[in-house]
Amino acid sequence: MLIDWFTVAAQVVNFLILVWLLKRFLYDRIIKAIDQREADIAARFEQAEAEQDAAARQQSELEQSRRELEEKSGALMTEAKEQAEQRRRELVNQAKQEVEGQRDDWREALERDRQALAGDLARLAGQGAAGMARRAMEDLAGEEVDQRSLEVFLDKLAGVEGDERRELKSALGQAEALEVRSAFELDERQRRRLGQALGELLGGEPALEFNREAKLILGLEVRVPGRKLAWSMDEYLGEMEQQLVERLARALNSAKTRQGGADEAREEPGDA
Amino acid sequence: MGIKDISPDVLVFWSWHWAKLNATIVYTWIAMLLLTLGSWLATRNLQAGRKLSRWQNFLEVIVTAMRNQIREIAQRDAAPFLPFVGTLFLFIALSNLLAIIPGWVPPTASLSTTAALALVVLIGVPIYGIQSRGFKQYLKLYVQPSPIMLPMNLLGELSRTLALAVRLFGNIMSGTKIAAILLAITPILFPVVMQALGLLTGMIQAYIFAVLAMVYIASAARIQQEREQKTREGALAKGDDNG
Predict the structure, then answer these.
(1) Beta strand pairing status for A178-182 and A208-212?
(2) Does this complex have an ipTM over 0.95?
(3) pTM for this prediction
């Protein structure tokens, strides 16, 4: 017979033993090693994915930080530019104001100097003219002129009326004597006429005290306490000097006004 | 020379009453020893890391290929079937492969060995079937589609097991014997060619035997997969209804 049943049984047993042996020494070990490797690879993949995720997160965070930093720096730069521009404008305005102030100060100073100079010039001119007139009048002084001066003074005394006359009378009541100053020496007759005129004006016979005053050009003056009656060329000359000064000042002011208009006209195109 | 004389069973080294130690058993032991020793040597220092020894790599390739093949046939996890089916393949393949050694007679050239392997498959199929389906469900297979088919089913079970045994025996025995005959007639050229052809045939037979065994086991154990399939179909139908 082809089949030996003892051999068949032995082969069955052999096969089962071989299954057990190979399971123990081959399949289990190999599969365990493969599973371990797969687990290791899976763990490595997971770790790599986790690291990749972490790297991506970190990259995202860094990108976010970079963007924020750029935005911040941009904002700071804009703010700094605005501040710098504002500061520049302030400094320019300040400088303009300072320059304007200095120019105003300078103009004021210049105006003051000019006015002072104009005043000085006017005064000097007036004084010069008056001085020349005064010297001319002094040179022309003589008995006839002195007599004429007295006549004019007496006419003036005669012309005093009303309140002025009452005020002079009350002032005279407080004085012991009237001081009469004259630019020339009065003779006896002239003194008498002056005494009569004053007596008519003030009432009674006032005591008179005559003094010579060279400064009074061709003139006379009567002094009572708080009041003075005078006539002299000096008044005319002073009035002339004052008029001269005023006219010169007006002339200089009008010249300055014209100059200022011309300056403004010149500045306008530049400001535009 | 009768057909009985060409079986390695006839070469008896030792006997005692009904027990005897013939070439089939001895060569089987040698193959077992080689497989076990090789496995032990190769798996002594297994590395779970990325650096593998060549032997470990070789064994991993074989085991992985067997696992994938089993998974494809069974359509489920290969772990329960791997020791049984894998050992069938490795034992038959090594036995046939060693035929290139002069004087080696493959144990698979013995009808006793192939019958034993077929018997193991015959027993293994219901065991796996009962494990997967349960006892009643498995027994129901034999009365499908109707109880009248019970004898036919039993006959089919036996006949396919017999075919399994005879196919392997016929192929291996014939190849071995043709090579031996040709060696006697034309000592040099033809025996080498036939030997090479015999190796190829032996490998193919090992593969076919293992695959068929797996197919039988898978068909017996398919109930679980059918349930899962039904469950999936039911879920899909529900999804469609809801959709």
Answers:
(1) parallel
(2) no
(3) 0.56
